[in-house]
Write a structure and sequence with these properties.
Blueprint: H1 3-18, E1 29-33, E2 36-38, H2 41-48, H3 50-81, H4 87-103, H5 106-114, H6 123-156, H7 166-183, E3 193-196, E4 201-204, E5 208-211, H8 220-253, H9 259-299, H10 306-316, H11 319-330, H12 332-342, H13 347-358, E6 360-363, E7 368-371, E8 378-379
Parallel strand pairs: 1-5
Antiparallel strand pairs: 1-2, 3-4, 6-7, 7-8
């Protein structure tokens, strides 16, 4: 199933769950009058619909189970099984760590939606959940960008010593983490929980409080923030990734007679496909809808497609399940370590087997591998 088919199926499922939710309404903008926040009937119906109380918990449960298992194993492999660290493995390890830090908060998100979108864990935990959600999204984009640039550099400059410079990779990763943590600070400066009086629930980052006396001031800061993040942490990296992959394919295309280049080209195409699927499902819709949502709220529009907006944010979490495919297809070493880990084979056992195999010589007469130290011992392969 290609990326378009996957996205179509997910959207059809979303429509099926959301069919009972009225499409009109200002879009989860709680009107605040005399410190009392209320929602209109359309927004209330959407909060009660199967889209948020059934479909979202299913997606988040999938993300938690698959993401925790796959990324937990990836972090284990990169930390304890991979002896020779190189820039690509450093970028992939940080990407896996970002996903792992995100999925460990999923039980709170699942509980929130199962309980009818009622947040019972307090404002501080809501802020942490929101910051880790957006931090993971932009962290993933930036580390995928770093990995894509590294893949191009390795292929285009195979003799360069910079392709093995771990200090540069570590410095870049620290810079990405610092940037994400700094740009997450604004998310802690205002409350994300809203008490909805007419529904007797408390939402977490689902309702924007609009002051009836000054509507635009309520969302203009959020609009500026997400415009900045979408531009710097998504749009610009997207351009870099596209340019890197075009140059990568061009470089590999110039060496079509080389069998090694042909193999690298195949791996590059698979990598591009996996990254494309991740962006089409997880990052492009959510970043587009984030800016559009707050722009429409700022303009006072009465129909801002909130169901599509919250669904795109939900699908963003699937990147924690798709990222492990990047590690698997990019690194032969990672695949080998995962296989050995699943078979409970230690590094020492693997190294001993490699040493034993490398010490054998192939005998044409007996059509078998013969030990280099003795002609009387043989092992058929």
């Amino acid at each position: 199933m290609d990326s378009k088919s996957m996205l179509s199926v997910l959207l059809l499922i979303c429509c099926a769950f959301a069919e009972n939710a009225p499409p009109k309404g200002r879009g989860f903008a709680g009107i605040k009058i005399e410190n009392v926040v209320t929602l209109d009937s359309a927004a209330s119906a959407t909060l009660k619909s199967g889209l948020t109380t059934v479909f979202f918990p299913i997606i988040y449960t999938l993300v938690f189970v698959v993401g925790l298992t796959a990324n937990g194993m990836a972090v284990w492999v990169f930390l304890f099984r991979t002896k020779k660290k190189h820039p690509s493995s450093i970028y992939m390890a940080n990407l896996a760590l970002a996903d792992l830090l995100f999925v460990i908060w999923m039980p709170l998100k699942i509980s929130y939606h199962v309980n009818g979108n009622n947040w019972i864990y307090g404002e501080p935990l809501c802020k942490i959940l929101v910051s880790f959600f957006y931090g993971n999204m932009y962290c993933s984009v930036l580390f995928i960008t770093c990995l894509s640039m590294q893949r191009y550099w390795v292929v285009a400059h195979p003799m360069s010593t910079q392709k093995k410079n771990n200090k540069v990779a570590i410095g870049v990763c620290l810079s990405v983490w610092a940037f994400i943590w700094i740009t997450s600070i604004p998310l802690y400066l205002y409350d994300h929980t809203v008490k909805i009086e007419n529904m007797n629930i408390t939402t977490c980052h689902d309702v924007n409080v609009i002051d009836a006396n000054d509507p635009q001031s309520s969302v203009k800061h959020a609009l500026f923030y997400f415009m900045f993040m979408s531009t710097v942490s998504f749009f610009v990296p997207c351009i870099v990734i596209v340019v890197a992959y075009i140059l990568l394919l061009k470089t590999l295309g110039d060496n079509v007679v080389d069998s090694t280049a042909a193999k690298s080209r195949k791996k590059a195409i698979v990598l591009i496909f996996v990254v494309l699927v991740t962006f089409v499902i997880c990052f492009i819709p959510s970043n587009f809808m984030l800016v559009l949502h707050y722009a429409l709220l700022n303009g006072g529009e009465v129909n801002n497609g909130y169901g599509v907006y919250i669904t795109s944010l939900c699908l963003t979490s699937l990147n924690s399940c798709l990222d492990p495919f990047i590690y698997y297809f990019v690194s032969d070493e990672f695949r080998e370590h995962v296989r050995n880990t699943l078979l409970c084979r230690s590094n020492r056992t693997v190294e001993q087997e490699k040493a034993t195999f490398s010490s054998m010589k192939y005998s044409k007469k007996s059509k078998s591998f013969v030990s280099g130290s003795s002609n009387t011992e043989s092992s058929h392969c």
